Amino acid sequence: EAGALWGGRFAGGPSPELARLSKSTHFDWELAHYDLAGSRAHATALHAAGYLSDDELSGMLDAIGTLETRVVSGEFVAAESDEDVHSALERGLVEIAGPELGGKLRAGRSRNDQIATFIRMYLRDKSAVLGGMVAELARVIADQAEANQDVIMPGRTHLQHAQPVTLAHQLLAHAWPLARDLDRLSDLGRRLDESPYGSGALAGSTLGLDASLVAHELGFSSSVANSIDGTASRDLVAEFAFVAAQIGIDVSRLAEEFIVWNTKEFSFITLDDAWSTGSSIMPQKKNPDIAELARGKAGRLIGNLTGLLATLKALPLAYNRDLQEDKEPVFDSVQTLEVLLPAFTGMVATTTFHGDRMRELAPQGFSLATDVAEWLVKQRVPFRDAHELSGACVRLAESKGIDLNGLSDDDFAGVSPLLTPEVRSVLTVDGSVATRDGRGGTSPARLAEQLDELRERLDEL
Ligand code: ARG
């Protein structure tokens, strides 16, 4: 077989059926750039150990450079007979450098340590790309929070009106998980910082090559301590897939808010025309497709993670070909987020929030009942009694078909003499929100502090 990396002990080439199953060039070409960087570093290590002369090293680096140019221009592509990106690029190198020199590069390395290294480099680079996009989304959320800081809306638990909150507070509650996702990516970066190159097939190399030299050339701080672990582990790939899934989930929770807020019944937001879609039959429709796709893509991202975990479960050490299945799920997760995040960010940035409508609904559903109870506590009424008295007010108001602030002074006094007319001070959404001023609370006074903290965190990450 022309380009195969093995053949000596085989009577003939692989069956077409095997070749078709085995082939990965249609997806692992994504790693070509890392493979070439690995080859440069490996040539340097071979030279340092005396396996390549000075001339051979420069000839090798020239050939790798020529190959890289051809890969970038599209002149060099995978051939039908190439099994994976690594075998294809070695074929290309031998074509350029000749079999004598080109055939020397494979000494002391295996596709097993190559692929384990390149996937880490890929994850490292993509962490930076996705991290930038996630940070941008979080910043846009923060900008919308700041621009709409006077808006008060119904805060919900169980989807029921619970207590009034500021829109800014609600929006920022979606930005903090994204900040933690960024933190997760940078934390993963510490673990990705060890190079498996030099592990060989599984047991290391006899050639005395300097693994830490290769590691540094490839931008890692160090190389792995255990060559079996280096070639057989994919927990870092799974961890990345988890973070990608969590980003998708965090985005989907904001997406769901937008979908609900965009309904006629809520009428909390209007989406910009350029960031919403129409219907092929209903002329009036304007749909939140970006948010719906965000919700849907979260499922796909979870699927990529669980598929990968299933591949890894109980897989014996060291390398098994099953591990080739790590790439498509994680590539898909990256591509999914690379397309989703900019669209979602654009949708959030261009949405109009209807503060009057939110404010109108904020006091409804007896959402100020906790404020009445806490007002009583401030008059030194035990909370247990305060809760009962406020509950009695709710029952009275409900029976009259009015809201809490519709009760008269006599109504309150009838429930308890403790409920003096001063209780009205907390029966406004502004009063309610303003008094929730402990750390982390929804009061406008705390908002500036929260925004500062978030932006500082985003700038650090
Ligand atoms: N293409 C393989 C992978 O992605 C690497 C090649 C290792 N193959 C082998 N037979 N040892 O995992």
UniProtKB/TrEMBL annotation:
GO terms for cellular component: cytosol. PROSITE patterns: FUMARATE_LYASES. Keywords: Amino-acid biosynthesis, Arginine biosynthesis, Cytoplasm, Lyase. Its EC number is 4.3.2.1. Pathway: Amino-acid biosynthesis; L-arginine biosynthesis; L-arginine from L-ornithine and carbamoyl phosphate: step 3/3. One of its GO terms (biological process) is L-arginine biosynthetic process via ornithine. InterPro entries: Arg_succ_lyase_C, Argininosuccinate_lyase, Fumarase/histidase_N, Fumarate_lyase_CS, Fumarate_lyase_fam, Fumarate_lyase_N, L-Aspartase-like. Residues 366-434 form the Argininosuccinate lyase C-terminal domain. It catalyses: 2-(N(omega)-L-arginino)succinate = fumarate + L-arginine. It is found in: Cytoplasm. Residues 18-303 form the Fumarate lyase N-terminal domain. GO terms for molecular function: argininosuccinate lyase activity. It holds the Pfam family ASL_C2. Belongs to the lyase 1 family. Argininosuccinate lyase subfamily. This is Argininosuccinate lyase. It comes from Pseudoclavibacter endophyticus. The gene is argH.
